[in-house]
Write a structure and sequence with these properties.
single chain, mainly alpha, elongated
Length: 208
């Protein structure tokens, strides 16, 4: 987002908020608060982002809209994480996990589970982070390599057929390597980093 686009977005959602309040459209008010929070998050004004998300959460609570609440708390968790307010981020995570059970939601790997693990890593709770990342890594490994042991020599061929899965596999391999390093599980680190490297090469994702 450019600075000019951010300012236009703020003006637009501020105007929308006035309209929604005037005509008593509370669900739309909650969504407008969320949009404003996202804009301020992109502006790196985390405190305003947090404030608008709190208003969104309060609105969805009053409406007893659990799906809206799930989205607002998920956004709030991300803001807290980036603001390094990790205790608050973890509190949001507990609420998110509870809502996932109530709404029968299976959390997606990216960004939900990946961000969840990231918070535990920042809090130095590496075992909990590993418990979140490892099942998804194993699931992708099974899809790509079947019952065989993962082999970096096959990544080139697999990328042709499963580019997205190889990219995710590389990202998770790198994250697991970082976690294992913190846990002094050195036997797997180089192997995992090898997977991450070749996934990066063949998917052309330099962020892996």
């Amino acid at each position: 987002f450019s600075s000019a686009n951010i300012d236009k977005s703020i003006q637009y959602y501020d105007s929308s908020l006035i309209y929604f309040k005037k005509y008593k459209l509370p669900a739309q008010v909650g969504m407008a608060y969320q949009k404003l929070s996202l804009v301020y998050f992109n502006k790196h004004d985390f405190y305003k982002a947090i404030d608008y998300n709190k208003k969104a959460i309060k609105t969805f609570l009053q409406l007893k809209d659990k799906k809206g609440l799930y989205g607002a708390i998920s956004n709030q968790m991300l803001v807290y994480k980036n603001a390094r307010m990790l205790d608050d981020a973890l509190e949001c995570q507990e609420q998110i996990i509870k809502l996932e059970k109530e709404l029968n939601i299976t959390p997606v790997l990216f960004p939900t589970l990946y961000n969840r693990a990231g918070i535990y890593i920042q809090k130095k709770n590496y075992l909990k982070a590993k418990r979140i990342i490892e099942p998804s890594y194993n699931e992708l490994a099974k899809k790509l390599f079947g019952n065989n042991r993962p082999n970096s020599g096959l990544i080139s061929t697999l990328t042709t057929e499963y580019p997205e899965e190889v990219e995710k596999f590389g990202i998770l391999a790198k994250k697991l390597a970082e976690i294992n390093q913190k846990l002094d599980k050195t036997e797997e680190i180089w192997r995992l980093m090898d997977f991450a490297y070749w996934a990066s090469v063949y998917t052309k994702n330099l962020e892996i």
